[in-house]
Each structure stands twice: as C-alpha cells, then as structure tokens.
C-alpha cells in the first residue's frame, strides 16, 4: 500500500514538473516570436549607393536596424552614431525618405529601399 502511494505521488510530481516546464517553454517561444532577429545579411533589399557602388550617406556598424537612425544636420546620414554632425548643406542627391528608410544592411547602417 505504501509503495503504491509513493509511486502515485512520484507520478503526480513528474506530471506536474513536465507541465510547468512545458508551460514556460511555450511562453518563451511565444515571447521570442515577436523579437527582431539580427540583420547581418540583407537578402532581397536594395541600398542607396553612389555611382561607384559604395553605400552613400551611410555611417557606422550595426547588428540590428534599431541601432541605426537618421543623423546629421539635415538627417541625411543613416548612422549608428546619434551624435554625428555634418555640414548643413542640402544636396539634391539625398535619399528620398518616401522610398528609403534608415536600417541595418550587411552590418552597416545604410539607407534601404522600402
């Protein structure tokens, strides 16, 4: 009788433990589904480039888009340095913010086509 009671209690503890662990695993997966993954290589995206092919108005390294923001006097630079300053000259080749957004492109802050 005591052996059956002990076995029953151990089964209840095991089922409870598995249920608790399962619950926390499900919660962890659900919480991580909405997180942005690091953007190291940007497939299928087009960056704003100079005539020579280099990234234009881009400054700084990044792992995620959250690390990049428009900077400079006219917000023409896409940079990981929020304190970045630039000459207050409005050039006619600044990226059009209706077409491009500042983000992380191949580990560099750059203007990326939306």
* Overall average pLDDT: 84
Structural class: alpha+beta
Spans where pLDDT lies below 50 across 5 or more residues: none
Report the β-strand fraction as a percent range: 15-25%
Please write the string of helix (H) and strand (E) elements.
HEEEEE
> Cα-atom Rg, whole angstroms?
26 Å
Widest β-sheet, arrangement of strands: 1-3-2
From the N-terminal CA to the C-terminal CA, the straight-line distance is 71 Å
Number of strands: 5
- Given the C-alpha coordinates, what overall shape results? rod-shaped
* Helix percentage range: 25-40%
Our count of helices gives 1
Main beta sheet, described?
3 strands, mixed
Structural descriptors:
two-stranded antiparallel ribbon; 114 residues; alpha+beta; three-stranded mixed beta sheet; rod-shaped; 5 strands
Q: How do the strands and helices of this protein lay out in sequence?
A:
Blueprint: H1 2-32, E1 58-59, E2 69-71, E3 77-79, E4 100-105, E5 108-113
Parallel strand pairs: 1-3
Antiparallel strand pairs: 2-3, 4-5
Protein model, in words:
The chain has 114 residues and is α+β, with helices and mostly antiparallel strands. The chain has one helix at residues 2-32, and strands at 58-59, 69-71, 77-79, 100-105, 108-113. The mean pLDDT is 84. The protein has a domain at 58-113. The strands form two sheets. It has a three-stranded mixed sheet, with no helix packed on it. Strands 4-5 form a two-stranded antiparallel ribbon. The longest helix is centred in the N-terminal third of the chain and has 31 residues, at 2-32.
